[in-house]
Amino acid sequence: MKLVMAFFEDFRGEPTILMDGDSEAFTLLAECLKHLESQDASPVNIHSLPFVLVLGEVQLTAYAVDREIGGPANE
């Protein structure tokens, strides 16, 4: 199981990071990110996870935040 990640400067007119993989790979990613629910959690370097295959020179780091940044609650 692999999660493939790539950066495109102009994907539908916007700079975009795309990820592709099977449900097992995305479940594993979710498990790796779950600890970010704690504000004092250390960042997760997604590009360095052993099941992530990076195409090109993209790096993606996830950080804990103290509130939701987007979604229906903020609309």
What's the layout of helices and strands?
Layout (H helix, E strand, L loop, with lengths): L2 E9 L2 E8 L1 H11 L10 E2 L6 E4 L5 E2 L13
Parallel strand pairs: 1-4
Antiparallel strand pairs: 1-2, 3-5
Q: What would a concise description of this structure say?
A:
The protein is an alpha+beta fold and 75 residues long. Helices cover 15% and strands 33% of the residues. It is built from one helix and five strands, in the order E-E-H-E-E-E.
Summarize this structure as a short list of keywords or feature phrases.
single chain, alpha+beta, 3-stranded mixed sheet, about 80 residues
Q: Can you describe what's shown?
A:
It is a single chain. The chain has 75 residues and is of the alpha+beta class. It has one domain. It has 1 helix and 5 strands; from the N terminus they run E-E-H-E-E-E. Strand 1 and strand 2 form a beta hairpin. It is globular, with a radius of gyration of 14 Å. It starts with a strand and ends in a 13-residue tail after the last strand.
Shape: globular
Largest sheet: 3 strands, mixed
Class computed from helices, strands and strand pairing? alpha+beta
Query: What is the average of the pLDDT values?
Result: 89
Helix content: 10-25%
> What is the element string, with H for helices and E for strands?
EEHEEE
Number of strands: 5
End-to-end separation in angstroms reads 36 Å
Rg over alpha carbons: 14 Å
Strand content is: 25-35%
Strand order of the largest sheet: 2-1-4
What is the total domain count? 1
Total count of helical runs of at least 4 residues: 1
